[in-house]
Amino acid sequence: MRIAVLDDYQRAARRFTDWDALDGDVVFFHEPLSGVAAVSAALAGFDVVVAMRERTPFTAELFERLPALRLLVTTGMANASVDLAAARRQGVTVCGTESVPHATAELTWGLILSLARHIPAEAAGMREGGWQRTIGRDLHGRTLGVVGLGRLGSRVAAIGAAFGMRVVAWSSNLDADRARAAGVEPVDRRTLFSQADVVTVHYKLSERSTGLIGARELSWMKPTALLVNTSRGPLIDTAALVEALRAERIAGAGLDVYDLEPLPADDVLRTLPRTVLTPHLGYVTEATYEVFYGQAAEDIAAFHAGTPLRVLNG
After folding, report:
1. Among 261, 274, 290, 298, which one carries the catalytic annotation?
2. Do residues 44 and 68 both lie within one domain?
């Protein structure tokens, strides 16, 4: 059994589980693979592939080009970039893993605080021999707008309340009673964007939610407001965000996710002022990787034994 572990950018996958216990030859890919031709060439002959979230799309065309593939394991229990029906047609079992609920919520607050207190700029200034250059924004008494009050949004909202913020939330299917029970004020979309001092996005990406935040929503925001996205890049219209930042219609943005990942070296987002950019670190923690890779190995062993676990396309 030949096993490919994709997108191991930090060369860390090997240390998070006992791959040697599997009955197979494990190969780790440390660079991103791009395009059906390149991916199919690299993975030709592999029986099992372990994919890291949505980094490598598995389309119907790709499955057709991988006749040896029998098992695809994706980290997490949902992966919008895997065509589950196509996998089933090709006889490929797709299994998932659990994940930890706290990691992305914690990074969200890292971005919020970095923006509000200008931490990256001040840290860089210290290394250059400088001293105080900026004046930070207070969070206490301000309004946090949470777009999507699910598992992650609820955690972010609770932390906002702990900071002494008023917390409001909106989504297309928000349960108002559940929101109030969590100490969150349900509001309509325009109210959230127009009143929030910090808007943070925690929404599931779909055809309907792509471009959820566009020029209209950005125009509703205060010129002093901050926007943070640790969910999925396409939820925000990037062109509209670039224009709003350049025109100083909003005060700043903290981004961990992008339309195309890895973000190209020449992407305009890398040049914009008043931004804090991180390379999709939301889930990249030791605890998460222990679950991801540990359960990926469990999935492989169970499939090999004829009793697959956590099947997503059964």
Report:
1. 261
2. yes
Catalytic member of 53, 137, 202, 280: 280
Are residues 167 and 290 both part of a single domain? no
Same domain, yes or no, for 110 and 89?
no
By the 8 A CB rule, do 199 and 178 touch? no
The mean of the pLDDT values for the chain is: 97
Domain assignment of residue 310, yes or no = no
Residue count of the chain, please give it. 314
| CATH number of the domain within which 180 lies | 3.40.50.720
CA gap 91, 96 in Å, rounded: 16
What's the pLDDT score for residue 158?
Answer: 98
Range of the domain at 81: 2-100+285-304
Residue 191 scores a pLDDT above 90: yes
Q: Please indicate, yes or no, whether residues 95 and 112 belong to a single structural domain of this protein.
A: no
Residue 232 falls in the annotated catalytic set: yes
Residues 135-179 have pLDDT tens digits of 999 999 999 999 999 999 999 999 999 999 999 999 999 999 999
Two tokens at 273? 């002022």
Q: At what angle do helices 103-116 and 119-127 cross, to 10 degrees?
A: 70
- 43-75 pLDDT, tens digit per residue, is 999 999 999 998 999 999 999 999 999 999 999
Domain total in the chain: 2
Instruction: Please give the pLDDT value at position 97.
Output: 98
- Answer for the pair 156, 282: CB distance below 8 angstroms, yes or no: no
Q: Is residue 140 part of a domain?
A: yes
Amino acid occupying residue 229:
N
Q: Give the three-class secondary structure for 184.
A: coil
> What are the residues facing 201 on neighbouring strands?
147, 229
| pLDDT band at residue 314 using 50, 70 and 90 as cut-offs | confident
Domain match, 182 and 195 both: yes
pTM of the model: 0.94
- Helices and strands per DSSP (H, E), number in the chain: 11, 12
Q: Which of 118, 142, 155, 232 is catalytic?
A: 232
Q: Is the Cβ–Cβ distance between 75 and 186 less than 8 Å? A: no
